[in-house]
Write a structure and sequence with these properties.
With 141 residues, the chain is an alpha+beta fold. The chain has a single domain, classed as 60s Ribosomal Protein L30, Chain: A (2-Layer Sandwich), CATH 3.30.1330. It is built from 4 helices and 4 strands; from the N terminus they run H-H-H-E-H-E-E-E. A 4-stranded mixed sheet has the order 2-1-3-4, with no helix packed on it. Strand 1, helix 4 and strand 2 form a beta-alpha-beta unit. The mean pLDDT is 91.
């Protein structure tokens, strides 16, 4: 949540008239939530997440790493025990931000070979943990 709060500060400095937080929680929105929005809101949510990820990658100093030949594991910790389907939390917007920031070369099958999404519950600290594997190397975000 710390990263989300820092991004909120950054966002509201750039958009002083904005009232609503661009990122509500530290895990990717469900595809079910995104897909029922009107087209303009769908695109806005996608752009907000991409901008957030670019901010975060720059903050970490990982921009332009151009990672290639990777496997990514997402561990998503939700705040409730409410049933969740891992496939509804496909990290499309996160990958778009990774590519735009230059962290990944691309998120196509030639560069991203495996994607694992696991859902958990942590009422006290909802979050997303991302592990990226390249051969013997591991990058933890």
């Amino acid at each position: 949540m710390d990263v989300v709060n820092r991004y909120d500060e950054h966002y509201f400095k750039q958009h002083p008239k904005a009232k609503k937080k661009p990122i509500e929680h530290p895990y990717h929105p469900s595809v079910n939530i995104w897909s029922i929005k009107p087209r303009i809101q769908m695109n806005a949510m996608k752009q907000q997440w991409k901008d957030f990820i670019i901010f975060w990658i720059k903050e970490l100093g990982y921009e332009n790493k151009k990672l290639d030949d990777v496997k990514i594991v997402y561990d998503i910790y939700h705040p409730t025990k409410r049933r969740t389907d891992p496939d509804n939390f496909t990290p499309k917007f996160i990958h778009d931000g990774f590519v735009e920031a230059g962290f990944l070369v691309d998120d196509d099958r030639n560069h991203l070979h495996s994607l694992t999404i696991r859902c958990h519950v942590d009422k006290e600290n909802p979050r997303t943990e991302i592990s990226i594997y390249m051969g013997d190397e591991n990058v933890q975000l």
